Records
---
Amino acid sequence: MSSAQHTNANGLIEFYQEYSPEEDQDRTNVHYEMPVEFFYAVTGGKWNVYSCNLWDVAGANDPTSSQEAKLDRFAHLMNLQPGQRILDVGCGWGGPLTYLCQKYGVEGVGLTLSPKQKAAADERIARAGVKAEVQVRHWEQYTDDRPFDAVYTDEVIVHFFHLGDFFKKAYSLLRDGGVMLNKELHYVHPRYSEMNRAISHINEIYGFTGNYRPLAEELRLANEAGFDVKAVEQIPLSQYKKTAGNWLDNMDEHKDELISLVGEEYYKRFKVYLRIIMRTFAAETMTLDMILSQKPVSQSKA
Ligand SMILES: C[S@@+](CC[C@H](N)C(=O)[O-])C[C@H]1O[C@@H](n2cnc3c(N)ncnc32)[C@H](O)[C@@H]1O
């Protein structure tokens, strides 16, 4: 980890640092290469989804069903059909990709920067017997000869400094008419991106790879890459409070096991991180949005 980082007047490392793919990997893996069992105990449920889930849907009152409700929403927005091919950029431990392949009859590729996540995902995919593969690869270095019907990210693009280039990459990987779905937190105004100690604690957990943006900026970048922006759907932050609250409950329930896995200091740091997230949501400076974009069908084929 070598780059010079810009800091603010209080000496805090700012958001929006540009790193090489290798440095992105080293930095994000400060977090994602922590033991798989730690994340499995914290996230819980059958799919170990590490992002906000949906609890306000009928029947979604436990971790597994809230994870599935969110993934069903993704599938609906992307209009997944059997036989289609999907790309999950930032696939975690493979739970979401496995679920979508199993339930919707699609095949998929997942990208992660973490070898431990890939190993866990490979195991899960083999157990489920679905048609999916996971690669340890930065999206900037991913190429494919076969087009995808859908490319999606779930709370991943915060790690991307070159978001406009990511959209261009997704565009090039999609068939004409294919869709891109991104779910992420957004500032309601750029002024809220100012760094303070609490937010710096969150950014440090992820190796200082944070790039939160206003929604308007993300929409503009999608258009500039050639996409039609078809839908913007907001998820109430109450859903994230419930998800993070569930993770905190899991941390209490599995305290001894978690401390033996990561040590008491990290255990405490992680709890502080989750509490800061909850407080940030209460301040209402962010929204959580799913943005569906489509690569237009070229005029000659329309
Ligand atoms: C917060 S986790 C989200 C996991 C999953 N989407 C979910 O909802 O459970 C972020 C994931 O993004 C991956 N990631 C971060 N930067 C990446 C990059 N540049 N290329 C590929 N994957 C990346 C991490 O390795 C990790 O798997």
---
Amino acid sequence: MKKIISISNQKGGVGKTTTTINLATSLAAVKKNVLIVDADPQGNASTGLGLTYNDRKPSIYEMIHEKKLLTEGIKETLIPGLKIIAANTDLAAAEVELTNFENREFVFKSIFNEINNFDFIFVDCPPALGLLTINSLVASDTTLIPLQSEFFALEGLSALMKTIQLIQQNFNNNLQIEGILLTMLDKRNSLSSLVEKDVRRHFGNQVYKTTIPRNVKISEAPSHGKPALVYDTQAAGSLAYIELAKEVILNQNKNHE
Ligand SMILES: Nc1ncnc2c1ncn2[C@@H]1O[C@H](COP(=O)(O)OP(=O)(O)OP(=O)(O)O)[C@@H](O)[C@H]1O
Ligand SMILES: [Mg+2]
């Protein structure tokens, strides 16, 4: 059975793409079949996995717009067991064009229904609460929310929670929160620790035990077109994403008991 997880937060630069790439890679490393859907016109997940411009078509946009086949759009990556539906800037047009679609909130869902043979599908959402993110959430079983460990972390989260509630009420009553992930944590910085405490007090066991440290190897990896886990397997950030993958699998097993 496949599980579809959107990585969402309309706040920019909080670690959505980094989490998508490295969590997906960690799960592929333990022999799960994993697909990333790059739903962000910036195409950072596609770049971070080393896809060249020509590799990036058809994106989910061409699948929607030109009815291109999934089989054409699902590309191999350098990681065995990890595939991707890439994105390019054309996807920005989808945000506008989707508004004219009947069932405009369900377009991703109908595409994902045709995708089989994966254990996990991760959708890397753009930093906005527009139709691309809404489509991702409507099509997902759960959403994982990265939060940057800084003063403004919680700002904007209520808008995201409201959107999730609206989607649960109107389009997808099965949507659940997979977990909240603290990213770019700097343990030496007392503000970082305060933010962590605050988030844990607020959201309790929805927050992963694992936190992702601020780690230079993580920020260097995308420019090499590699996940941090491949760029430097022993880096603190890489090890943290392996721990996160363990938690995701544990939660998955718990839910199936
Ligand atoms: N743990 C980390 N340590 C150091 N740098 C990080 C870490 N996580 C992410 N970064 C860097 O921070 C920047 C933003 O991360 P990322 O692209 O994953 O965020 P995002 O939420 O996907 O951004 P956007 O909203 O633009 O899609 C990137 O340059 C990334 O390399
Ligand atoms: Mg991103």
